[in-house]
Amino acid sequence: MSAPERPAEEEEAPLEERIYVIPLRKAWAAPRKKRVPRAVRLIKEFARRHMKAEEVKIAPELNEYLWSRGIEKPPRRVRVRMERYEEGLVKVHLAEEG
Description:
The chain is an alpha+beta fold. The chain has helices at about 35-50, 60-65, and strands spanning about 15-25, 55-60, 75-85, 90-95. The chain has a four-stranded mixed β-sheet.
């Protein structure tokens, strides 16, 4: 027996969308085994400061990009697309190159 079908939830459109290049040099000042977690915190802190956000969500593709070379070698900088929604929510995605 399958689950009852729910009506398709409409994706909420963002109020604002911006592209940033976030420097992650401070993550390299952390001990080797704590660099990528520090980079994630830096991205969230940057989003809170620039987008006036209360809650920041990082997209899975951005997280995978940060972890692609392991915990010891995060990228030096990352180009992201930030979308601000109502109620202070900001979603951070990896920006398409181009």
